[in-house]
Amino acid sequence: MATAPLTCSNPPKLKLKLPFLNNSTYSPSRIPRNYKKLRHWQSLSPRMAINPNSYAEIGRRINNVKNTYNYSNKNYKRLDSCLVIPPPQGVKPKALIKFLGGAFIGAVPEVTYSYLLELLAKEGYLIISVPYNVTFDHAQVTKEIYERFHACLDSILVSGLPENGLSGVEIADLPFYSVGHSNGALLQVLMGSYYCERIPKANAIISYNNKPASEAVPYFEQLGPLINQMMPVMEASPMYSMAQSVSDAWKTLVDVAGRIMPDYDPEAALSLNNFVDQLPAVFNQVAQGISEFKPTPSENLDCFKALYNVQHTLLIKFDFDAIDETDLLEETLKPRVESFGGKLEKVILGGNHITPCAQEPRWQVGPVYTPADAVAQGLKAISLNDTRVLSRTISKWLSGLEV
């Protein structure tokens, strides 16, 4: 079969309303290329896709904390609004991975994806994870993640990672891949469709999901008007002012914990603050009458069919995942990938939608080994095995691209 050249010079034009293109006809060649000039990027935040006047937590508050952390078994560096996870000391990375987690939990990857990220780092990958706040505007948050990731990477290419013995030149020579889970999988595919420069050589797409809002959240269409009608009553209630103070109360508890706990991790607590603070903004969108994601799921599929640019794609689904839409994505991407001579593969693994988020349980065996210890250790082995298989599958597939 003759293959079409992979180019963005004359792509098909789709009638998608993308906010960063001023609602004009979509064309990747018209997306601004001035990411190298975006040195003001610290002011950008996925929160701003929800409300430009809101407090942009991610990328602003973290500037007030240290850059490098190494608490207990943690080994990562916070570089502005991105999380950098290097391989173990003394191990030269074999590739660079951009990682995106799912909706809500993607704001705190060092908490929700710590075990998977640790496994991938031990496989020899340098990982840059981009935390983001949940939003109904997928086009805008995709743009912001793209800019924030490349601003972080540009900074690393200039300074290197001297504490890990890595120069910028060494990092620049690494193959570049992406891994995304659930909503993060959707955003990775969108990024591979909106842009044709500085995109990964390969995408590992885990548990892809992009259901309409009415299916993702039952009774969603009725929820917006109901909240909007209730707002005057809620605002007049003393409970509303109390609810507004919840995030402040949370921050107070975090500060107190920092003073009394010797092994307290302030950076992880800071990310948990980001997780809590994104919830009110989502309800504000619902109250304002938001009834669907932008672009809609059907518009995304049309975009993928015409514009997806990533040469190699691995689709990963789990055998017990009721909300997975990997098969639909495979059907959509296959003709496009074949048209430019790319490669699309799919694997089915044991597990469920939250398998990538499995955490290593902290079970301290007492002075006497009891049946409870045996049960706990058995459950630990079962819960983590699927995540280890996932990590090995990704690593093996990516390694096959390097030969």
From TrEMBL:
It comes from the Eukaryota. This is Uncharacterized protein. It comes from Olea europaea subsp. europaea. The lineage of its organism: Eukaryota, Viridiplantae, Streptophyta, Embryophyta, Tracheophyta.
